[in-house]
Amino acid sequence: MSSHTESSNFVEFEQHVAKLFHKGGWTVETPKANQPGYDLAIRKGDLVAAVQVKWLRANVSTPMIQRFESFLESKEGQRFNYGFFVTTKGYAGPARALMRAWGEDTKIHCGVALEHKFDWIDPDKITDGKDEQDSQGSTGIEKPIYFGVFTCKGGVGKTTVSAHLAGAFALQGFNVALVDLDPEQNLQKLVGDGVFVPNPKGIGTNIQVFDGQDWHEDAARDCQIVICDCSPALERNPKELIEKLDYCIIPTTLNPLGINKHGKVIQSTVEEIRKINTIAHLFVLVNNFKQPGANHLRVLKRAFFEAYKEIKKTDDKFHCIDPEEVCIRASDQLYYWGIHLLENPDSPLSELAFKLIGGKCHPREDFINLSDYIENKAALGSLRNASS
Ligand SMILES: Nc1ncnc2c1ncn2[C@@H]1O[C@H](COP(=O)(O)OP(=O)(O)O)[C@@H](O)[C@H]1O
Ligand SMILES: [Mg+2]
User: Fold this and answer.
1) Does the beta carbon of 287 sit less than 6 angstroms from any atom of ligand 1?
2) How far is the CA of 151 from the centre of ligand 2 (A)?
3) Residues whose CB is under 5 A from ligand 2 (ion)?
4) Which residue among 30, 166, 180, 218 sits deepest, i.e. has the most Cβ atoms within 10 Å of its Cβ?
5) Is 285 near ligand 1, meaning CB less than 6 Å away?
6) What pLDDT score was predicted for residue 135?
7) Could you tell me if 277 and 194 lie in one domain?
8) What letter does residue 326 receive in the DSSP assignment?
């Protein structure tokens, strides 16, 4: 099956899809801008269908389809007799497995738009293994907000923070694209091609994971937030992405003997970023925090702020987050989340360390705090409006 490669961007592709439906006897309506859940509504006689258009350079992943499925089950989505999910390239293996589980009676039909026709996937003919075709939609948000998680040092929690910050935003109703820029691909090994975050009241949100090489802004037009898990060697990250960052989270640890050393690491981290990007707000975040008791905490905090005093003087967009206000605590759940990579490097976990245990979850609380902090500090009011 050949893919539709002519459309170089989302808008062109959406027009092409509309044309193909029109040719098939459907009347095409474009919903109002920012309509969440689908891109086009189409009618034929008494039938009405929602169409999700997904322009991608890579195959469609499961959470992208799950979100559409969840929309069709929502109150708003129930007025549609069918859902058509149309993409440029194809569907990844897990997405095809999902379609096969739906069987023939499904309301959703997934396909690829070829030059002159659609190629719909027959759930009964799906075979294992081979990735095929793809699709999903946009809400018309003009430009997503870009976050980078970067320290020029390994093992400080870049991947852990990227994934769970994405989770915190998803819990709050944002669709998030996670871009894995580290050649080690730990993020992809842990969460695969994404996570769907269901919402009993709404249509749910998804975290879509992209390899840096497959990334293109048009591939995640339904995402309000893009988070890059950066390579610790700055020059190995695509310059055009680092230039785009609106915010950069710099994870560090707060150990008595490490503070001065980490101060230097943060200093060079900031210098590296500033060679490429002068607009981003930079936030130093304490990860893996162990509460030391009030007296010791006072001493540690003094040393912490002291280590970054010089940078603050010369950079007014550099912020150290007070660990008493927001930090990521050392947590068994986060630790074992990472262990999964060693135990099962070839089968992603596809979930986050957000499980409630006895009604509580430290990582969940900490990362929601972090996302709130960033929203308030950075006045991301526009984010809130975009999620609706
Ligand atoms: N807050 C935390 N509590 C417990 N373990 C953590 C925490 N943050 C990170 N880890 C663990 O530390 C290790 C390094 O984290 P990782 O996110 O892979 O760092 P990086 O991406 O910077 O190399 C992983 O094994 C991870 O599970
Ligand atoms: Mg990493």
Assistant:
1) yes
2) 10
3) 158-159, 182, 186
4) 166
5) no
6) 32
7) yes
8) S
Decide if 1 is inside a domain. no
- Does residue 186 have its Cβ closer than 6 Å to ligand 1? yes
Cα separation, 111 vs 118, in Å, equals: 6
212 and 151 within one domain: yes
Residues 235 and 93 in one domain: no
The answer to whether 31 and 39 are in contact (CB under 8 A) is yes
What would you report as the CA-atom Rg of the chain, rounded to the nearest whole angstrom? 22
Give SS3 for 251.
strand
Q: Does 97 contact ligand 1 (Cβ within 6 A)?
A: no
How remote is the CA of residue 336 from the centroid of ligand 2, in Å?
A: 15
Q: Look at the alpha carbons of 248, 251, 257, 262 in this order and tell me if their dihedral is positive or negative.
A: negative
Domain boundary among 96, 125, 154: 125
Q: Could you report the per-residue pLDDT of 10-49, keeping only the tens digit for each? A: 999 999 999 999 999 999 997 777 677 899 999 999 999 9
- How far, in Å, from the CA of 318 to the mean position of ligand 1? 23
* Residue 134 pLDDT: 31
Task: Say what the pTM is.
Answer: 0.76
The mean pLDDT value for 263-288 works out to: 94
Contact yes or no for 225/145 (Cβ under 8 A): yes
Same domain, 68 and 171: no
Compute the distance from residue 229 Cα to the ligand 2 centre, in Å. 7
Which range has highest mean pLDDT (105-109, 128-132, 237-241)?
237-241
**Interval 187-220: pLDDT, tens:** 999 999 899 887 655 677 889 999 999 999 898 8
Are 102 and 150 in a shared domain? no
Nearest CA to ligand 1 atom 6: 335
Q: Is 139 in the pocket of ligand 1 (CB under 6 A)?
A: no
Other beta carbons less than 10 A from residue 98's beta carbon? 21
pLDDT at 302 over 80: yes
Shortest-distance Cα residue to atom 23 of ligand 1: 155
pLDDT tens column, 161-188: 999 999 988 887 789 999 999 999 999 9
4 domain residue, yes or no: no
Q: Which residue has the tokens 């959470």?
A: 63
**Phi and psi at residue 93, to the nearest 5°:** -50, -50
Residue in 159, 160, 178, 190 to alter for ligand 1 test, most ligand atoms within 8 A of Cβ: 160
Range of the structural domain that residue 343 is part of: 145-387
Task: Output the pLDDT for position 203.
Answer: 72
